[in-house]
Amino acid sequence: MLKFYFSWTSSSTKLVLFLEESGIPYEPIPIDLQRGAQHKPEYLAINPNGKTPAIDDDGVIMFDSSAILIHLADKHDKFLPPKDDPQNRASMLSWVIFAGSGIGPFSGQAAHFKYFAPEPGQGYAHERYQYEARRHYGVVNKHLADREYMVADTYSIADMAIWSYGQMAPMIAGEDAWTEFPHLKRLVDTIDARPAAARVLAVKERFASAFSAPDEESRKYLYKHIRAGA
């Protein structure tokens, strides 16, 4: 059975959605980032980058959420354009990587400098990541203006990837985010209404006690640069 190492981050959430949509049996293994489980030798043997998610797919070890999503979709032939449709296949890959290498990192950094930096919500880094996060949301919003889904008007892993990071828009851009990005909101709402999305929330509730709340102790695991410079 697939072993799925996860924390409750956007990168993990898109994979929970895919697994629940696909009906692939899996064993969820929570990694408590707030208590440094990602830095333990046994986990670093699976993901040397010390991040989540990661998988052990019957002996095939993988990390990086986009790589895992593409691997599982291809292996099980789920939520992909047909192989004889090279353009939409290429577009799907482009949007999955755009989400994982663009929206995700910029949104994460925007959240960090807005809420968790020593001087939250101010300075050059805050302004830069706010701009880039919003720019990425805008790219998706514009693309969705005349289509229901990201690729070929068919629900795919590209939509799952956008959904997981797109949910962060109000946290990053503020209460007017959905007014600014209405087409992104429509996609998020459409996926939220799917039965699999409800099962994602059930997984979150099931493992709620496995994840510690952020506190002063967690800073030494999540922000080692601050600890080293203290």
SSE layout and pairing:
Blueprint: E1 2-6, H1 10-22, E2 26-30, H2 41-44, E3 54-57, E4 60-63, H3 65-76, H4 86-116, H5 124-143, H6 157-166, H7 169-173, H8 177-180, H9 182-192, H10 195-206, H11 216-222, H12 224-229
Parallel strand pairs: 1-2
Antiparallel strand pairs: 1-3, 3-4
Helix pairs in contact: 1-3, 1-6, 1-10, 4-5, 4-6, 5-9, 6-9
Q: What would you say about this model in short?
A:
InterPro entries: Glutathione-S-Trfase_C-like (IPR010987), Glutathione-S-Trfase_C_sf (IPR036282), Glutathione_S-Trfase (IPR040079), Glutathione_S-Trfase_N (IPR004045), GST_C (IPR004046), Thioredoxin-like_sf (IPR036249). This protein has 230 residues and is α+β, with helices and mostly antiparallel strands. It contains twelve helices and four strands.
Looking at this protein, list some descriptive labels:
GST_C; single chain; 2 domains; Glutathione_S-Trfase_N; 59% helix; Glutathione_S-Trfase; alpha+beta; transferase; globular; transferase activity; 230 residues
Give an account of the 3D structure.
The protein folds into two domains: 2-78 and 197-229, Glutaredoxin; 86-193, Glutathione S-transferase Yfyf (Class Pi), Chain A, domain 2 (Up-down Bundle). The protein has twelve helices and four strands; from the N terminus they run E-H-E-H-E-E-H-H-H-H-H-H-H-H-H-H. The model has no long low-confidence stretch (mean pLDDT 95). The radius of gyration is 18 Å and the shape is globular. With 230 residues, it is of the alpha+beta class. It has helices spanning 10-22, 41-44, 65-76, 86-116, 124-143, 157-166, 169-173, 177-180, 182-192, 195-206, 216-222, 224-229, and strands at residues 2-6, 26-30, 54-57, 60-63.
